[in-house]
């Protein structure tokens, strides 16, 4: 296993004689170690409590209150916000839209990210250069990614229109972002485009720890590309694949920036995923109570993936 | 790994390579050349694949009317401080998790890492009133502090993985010499961890530089805007979309982060994949 992949399991230091310095040892070695450990942890813990835990708990509380422009002080209303959600088809529709968006974006990114990693794992002329520029889509500011694809999908002068006109697929320029399917396609394509580099990176790291001799042996036995892929590469990548899918689902469930910049959730509500829905309720309509309730259900959709991911990160800790 | 000795395998390989490369890189090429096209060339149904009459008008617009310089400076201040703060918090916490054993360590780590999976949008709902109560709404300080949300969990984990690899003997030898814990960390552990620290700094910097959601919400005044909402609100209104200006400003706004990655890419990839791939 390479340096890249072996880190996390090395956590179990064997107990040694000098676990803390002499100055920190009062009250016993163990107490000393705890004290020093907690001291190092304190700044991050305070920051975590202030900007993450406390806001989260507050949002949890808001979900059970009426808290909007007419009600400047939150008032407890029990489950009314959740009843409201269940009886509002537009909000329920957001869950469906989110499912479609996350499914499409994650699926295509995994597929293309894997293909790209397989390609870049193969020696060919210019590979180094291509690897080096492959990360660019991922590091661009969200607004820039949205501009790039907004321009390509432009209703009149976009590259996509030009391409389809030349190919004879359409007769006149189409306003893609104004049609429900076109808008969904645009936000998915944008997210897939900017996520492929990261997924490729994970797959490539996984591929590098593959046992080459095993594959050579399979080749000698006459195995073609497909059997090698199916019987050796994919089984080896299974753990990476799971992590990548989970990370992809978490990331796509959360994603806001490029969708907001490209379509703002429209046309009408065609791309109003949960992140957009919560943002609109909270910061356009200033209905903090309802927004928090939707947000809480949103967290619930992330939880299964999150639990898997955290267990994976913390194995061996 | 793949056997490309047969012509058909080579053809498929080349086709897939070409298709994905086109999808990944052509948009970047398109962004770049569009920035150098004048309006006459930009607004054509069938566009030119190369700027026949390259102009710098769009850059002039971007720097002049677009307040690009202000936005870049604001972004630099906010992202730089957010990244520094994030690195500092993460390095102490990561060291604590990596080199000390105490009750509750695993649980604290779980708690801290779990923050990565809370939707940023949900946290923003209650961060907003909190930031307002503290009088930090529409300030760079408020935005900087809020950015801890994005990067702290992963940064802590990246540094934790790195510090577990620092030999404990190194630390114990210093203890035997009577050095204090803080001094050991600052003078022995940190100097051998520069690559990891740089990676984590860059990671935090990238999150804040590229963000739209938080900067759009927590900053109101035009003169305090960072590039994310700055670009969006300057160029993409339905009445008057200036795509040439948008492309030019995008090129300028992306260049710092792209250049930083060009230099630090290898370290960065190791840091990001640590732990997640196994």
Explain what you see:
The complex is a heterodimer of chains A (317) and B (278). Chain A is mainly alpha-helical and 317 residues long. Chain A folds into two domains: 23-55, no CATH class; 83-313, MetI-like (MetI-like fold, Orthogonal Bundle). Chain A is built from 13 helices and two strands; from the N terminus they run αββαααααααααααα. The longest helix of chain A has 34 residues, at 29-62. By secondary structure, chain B is mostly helical. Chain B has two domains: 11-55, no CATH class; 61-273, MetI-like (MetI-like fold, Orthogonal Bundle), CATH 1.10.3720. Chain B contains 14 helices and no strands. The longest helix of chain B has 32 residues, at 68-99. The mean pLDDT of chain B is 89. Chains A and B meet through helix 1, helix 3, helix 4, helix 5 and helix 6 of A and helix 1, helix 4, helix 5, helix 6 and helix 8 of B.
Question: Which chains make the largest contact?
Answer: A-B, 130 and 122 residues
What is the rounded Rg of chain B?
23 Å
Number of DSSP-assigned strands of chain B: 0
Report the order of strands and helices of chain B. HHHHHHHHHHHHHH
Architecture per CATH nomenclature, i.e. the level-2 architecture of the largest domain in chain B:
Orthogonal Bundle
CATH class of the largest domain in chain B: Mainly Alpha
Please report which band the strand proportion of chain B falls in: under 5%, 5-15%, 15-25%, 25-35%, 35-45% or over 45%.
Answer: under 5%
The largest pleated sheet of chain A is described as:
2 strands, antiparallel
Regions with little confidence, pLDDT below 50 for 5+ residues of chain A: 1-16
**Largest sheet composition of chain B:** none
The tally of strands of chain A reads 2
Helix/strand-derived category of chain A reads mainly alpha
What is the residue-averaged pLDDT of chain B? 89
Low-confidence stretches of chain B: none
Q: Helical amount among residues of chain B, as a percent range?
A: over 70%
Please state roughly what percent of the residues of chain A sit in beta strands, choosing from under 5%, 5-15%, 15-25%, 25-35%, 35-45% or over 45%: under 5%
CATH architecture of the largest domain in chain A: Orthogonal Bundle
At the first level of CATH, what is the class of the largest domain in chain A?
Mainly Alpha
What is the CATH superfamily classification of the largest domain in chain B?
MetI-like
The structural class of chain B is mainly alpha
